[in-house]
Amino acid sequence: MDTGLAEIIDGIGPRLRALRRGRGLTLAALAAETGVSVSILSRLESGRRRPTLDLLIPLARAHRVALDQLVDAPATGDPRVHLRPRRREQGNVLVPLTPYPGRVQVFKQVLAPREPRLVSHEGYEWLYVLAGALRLVLGERELTLRPGEAAEFDTAEPHWFGSADGHAVEILHLFGPHGDHAVVRTGTREG
Asked: How far apart, in whole angstroms, are the C-alpha atoms of residue 59 and residue 53?
């Protein structure tokens, strides 16, 4: 078998496992949904069983993804960006917009109402509100941001952000290594 093809096939099992776990499903729950036995699902995910169309099609349907996403088909020259949203806790969606680990990461997020829990960690964050009202807690300070407003802060400071009014809020979220932060310029440049 050609090396490229072997790599594509070897990558299917881990993708299947990540999809199942991302949906919070057990092998038994996925088996009930697809009609594929638990043992076959387990062997597919571990790479001990070669995937076939009759197994991949019901799995793609169950996970609501295109078949080419399961096999990580090579690009076809289509210039569109195919984003892959990740569901988080109930009602929360995270859409990675950049594929650059270790550099500034950009996400579009929809945050459902949730209880505040302050956290701190290395890095720097920049938030831009697209829709709804965002409650931002930075240490002892609390702010409400509306569409078109932005905030930036060092994540070493205890912080939390989420819905300000009990409705979902949609934001752009940039996160970078410590010291990396957005530089905002407005107006025209005089020459």
From this structure: 10
